[in-house]
């Protein structure tokens, strides 16, 4: 069955939820431009907006896979085991396997991921799965690529980078000021707390999206969980539903859902993946 290539509504929703942060990034870049040049400050935000095209360069996926996700190239043996499975999935989906690159995550946990628009990664533990189950896992990751989930996430990540960098600097500065105040004690402690509050107020004034974080973060997590369910559905439509069910049932036996159940409400709301039980229920309904 040939899979359709179109952006899933969850990917579009994730992009829209990133708009406040992206606008904050635009503001920070514009402020930086004005600090450098009063007359040509507009060049900075324009160049930054155009720079987003870099995420569509295939080589970017490979760099981020290595630096951010710590994925490596497969060995000859690993490639011999994985490449035929990827080609089978791509043939079933009606896409060119040469568009995608396999990468390996050194991990004892069964895991897989899609990065950008071209990388499909699996953990070393996942390589121990039966051939049919491993192929189903690859089909799930292909579902993310076909729906545009990972590409949209990469675009959002890139354009949010300036705002997140500034906020990180503010947080680190606040932590350093508090530490200094604690070491000096006395009046310095009070002063450090005042400075931290001032930094917080300045951060909110410079980036009002911070006030929306308590609302946006759970919504972004929700779109991520919906994306996982959609990727499961794509894998099922390609004929990999029964084998994917076997993988999910294995995860339940290994206690994945038990760990999730012990987590607090906030952790569950911010979880990027739905429970295995929910994924199984959705797949069984699809079947």
UniProtKB/TrEMBL annotation:
GO molecular function ontology, one term from the record: metallopeptidase activity
Primary localization: membrane
Protein topology in the membrane: Multi-pass membrane protein
Location of this chain's protein in the cell: Cell membrane
Record text on cofactor binding: Binds 1 zinc ion per subunit.
EC number: 3.4.24.-
UniProt entry tagged with the keyword Ion transport: no
Glycosyltransferase is among the record's keywords: no
Pfam families cross-referenced by the UniProt entry: Peptidase_M48
Cofactor(s) needed: Zn(2+)
Keywords: Cell membrane, Hydrolase, Membrane, Metal-binding, Metalloprotease, Protease, Transmembrane, Transmembrane helix, Zinc
Signal peptide: none
Highest taxon of source: Bacteria
Record domain Peptidase M48: where: 79-284
Transmembrane domains' residue ranges: 12-36, 42-64, 161-182, 194-222
Family, as annotated: Belongs to the peptidase M48 family.
Name of protein: M48 family metalloprotease
Organism: Lentzea rhizosphaerae
Organism placement in taxonomy: Bacteria, Bacillati, Actinomycetota, Actinomycetes, Pseudonocardiales
């Amino acid at each position: 069955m040939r899979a359709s290539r179109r952006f899933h509504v969850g990917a579009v929703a994730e992009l829209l939820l990133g708009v406040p942060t992206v606008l904050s990034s635009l503001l920070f870049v514009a402020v930086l431009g004005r600090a450098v040049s009063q007359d040509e400050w507009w060049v900075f935000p324009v160049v930054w907006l155009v720079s987003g095209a870099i995420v569509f360069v295939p080589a970017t996926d490979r760099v981020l896979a290595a630096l951010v996700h710590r994925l490596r190239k497969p060995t000859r043996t690993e490639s011999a085991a994985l490449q035929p499975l990827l080609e089978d999935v791509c043939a079933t989906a009606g896409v060119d396997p040469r568009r995608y690159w396999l990468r390996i995550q050194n991990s004892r946990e069964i895991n897989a991921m899609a990065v950008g628009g071209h990388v499909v990664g699996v953990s070393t533990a996942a390589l121990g799965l039966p051939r049919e189950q491993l192929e189903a896992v690859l089909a799930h990751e292909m579902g993310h690529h076909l729906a545009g989930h990972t590409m949209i996430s990469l675009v959002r990540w890139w354009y949010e980078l300036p705002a997140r960098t500034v906020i990180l600097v503010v947080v680190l500065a606040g932590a350093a000021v508090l530490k200094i105040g604690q070491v000096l004690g006395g009046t310095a402690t009070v002063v450090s707390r005042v400075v931290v509050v001032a930094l917080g107020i300045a951060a909110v004034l410079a980036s009002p999206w911070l006030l929306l974080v308590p609302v946006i973060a759970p919504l972004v997590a929700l779109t991520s969980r919906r994306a996982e369910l959609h990727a499961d559905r794509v894998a099922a439509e390609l004929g990999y539903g029964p084998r994917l069910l076997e993988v999910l049932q294995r995860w339940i036996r290994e206690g994945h859902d038990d760990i999730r159940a012990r987590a607090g409400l906030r952790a569950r709301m911010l979880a990027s993946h739905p429970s295995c039980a929910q994924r199984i229920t959705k797949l069984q309904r699809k079947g």
